[in-house]
Amino acid sequence: MSTAHPTRDDRVVAAVSEVVGGPVGEHAGRHPWWTPTRVLLLMMAAIFALGMVQKAPCSLADGKDQKWVYSHMCYTDLRPLYVPRGLAELSWPYSDDEGTRDRYEVMEYPVGISYWAYGTAWITQVLGGSDDVDAREDRPVSDLYGDKDVDRELTIFVLVNAVGFAALALLSVWLMARVNPGRPWDAAAFALSPTLVLTGLINWDLIAVALVVGALWAWSRDRPVLTGVLIGLGTAAKLYPLFLLGGVLVICLRRRRYGAFALASVWAAVTWALVNLPAYLSGPDQWKVFWSFNAERGADLGSVWLIADQLTSDGIEVATVNDISWLFFGGWCVGVLVLGLLAGRRTGSVPRLAQLGFLIVAGFLLVNKVYSPQYVLWLLPLAVLARPRWRDQIIWQATEVFYFCTVWWYLGSYLQPAGGGDAGFYWVGIVVRMAGELYLVTVVARDMLLPHNDPVDEPLDGPVDSGDDDPVEGGGGVAHPHVDRVAHGRHVRTVR
After folding, report:
1. 337 within domain boundaries
2. How many angstroms from the chain centroid is the CA of residue 145?
3. Element (H, E) at 199
4. pLDDT digit string (tens) for 438-490?
5. What is the pTM of this model?
6. Is residue 15 part of a domain?
7. Closest C-alpha among 207, 43, 176, 26 to residue 110
8. Longest dimension (CA), the chain
9. Residue 2 lies in a domain
10. Ramachandran region of residue 109, left (φ > 0), alpha (ψ -120 to 50) or beta?
11. How many structural domains is the chain composed of?
């Protein structure tokens, strides 16, 4: 299969390429060593290094107050959680020991993140040569904040996690380059993403991002079991990877491959249960904290509920927010299901998992109770693969960067009116972000309804026939669409 070169496939890249001589020619050769994947990995390494530099002022500088951190937009959750969650003492996140629970709060994250944080804390203390960890139990927790050894560990902890995140980002790009055969350059919109620079080191979300990309790759390689395992692992780190099963359901219904959906679902559930089991057995009450924390959480940063809550005199009850948001999300999922079942029937094409996954996750984030700045990473690989066009990516990511700026200005009280009251300009940031998501949702939905607009050459995404030409025995009773390349880079979709 030939490779779609971005300078000939994307108008934005073609226009930019004029600076260096224009799009690649018909007879251009390939470099013997610089393959697309290696170039993408180099891009990713450079961008992630830039992200580390962007976070360095808040991770390495001493004596900076919280407002300074917000004004420099370099905040990360890694440092503030090291001591208060017991990582400085290597306390097991799900310990039910009364002494531990009196000293430290329970990690409010899913088990995958808690395991990672605990593991990186252990590596931190090995690298830092911390020999007196047990002695810290006899000291007040407040004393640990001013301890020079602990402060040194904080820096090491951030760096250890950054190296791990960099590995996850590189793995994500490597897998993304292989999801759509012939289109490795689509991953460049991920590797060069400004949102990745700004948010990649805020929290542990890249764990789930890498597992979601892995699931997309496994599905494209006809591996429903591996897809389910990776979705299960991703759901153990963040809830949203579970939503990929909705996209798998739509595709399997269209192709009548019910067994593939069953395999992916069962293995996702089994994997999630096995990963959660150690945490649940060691401290069931502590394991439940993540679920209770999110159920009891009210309208928070970045959500439309925050605007509504601040506009009303008495605020909005948590139960009301929960009920309406889940009702909306349920209706959104039904809409994606109907769209996925109807889209492309005239041409015989089936929506791609990245498209369906993007629509479902976007619907969840549009009405979720909170939109932390790093949540853009949930959408990033799905958006890049669902709509691999630089113009649309630039428009969407520009709105996310605008929101990124406003949320820190808001937290630093820089948007507060001189006369007091709510920071209305922050509401503008929220609305702009939601408008950017809805724009991309509209474009992706259009591509599904009118497949000739979809830039991806091969409309198949997911289990294929594995070489069997029988449309009933090998393809689950449906003919498979293909793409024929014709003159001038245009394509005609046929069913054969």
Report:
1. yes
2. 32
3. helix 194-199
4. 999 999 999 999 998 888 854 444 443 333 333 322 333 333 333 333 333 33
5. 0.88
6. no
7. 207
8. 76
9. no
10. beta
11. 1
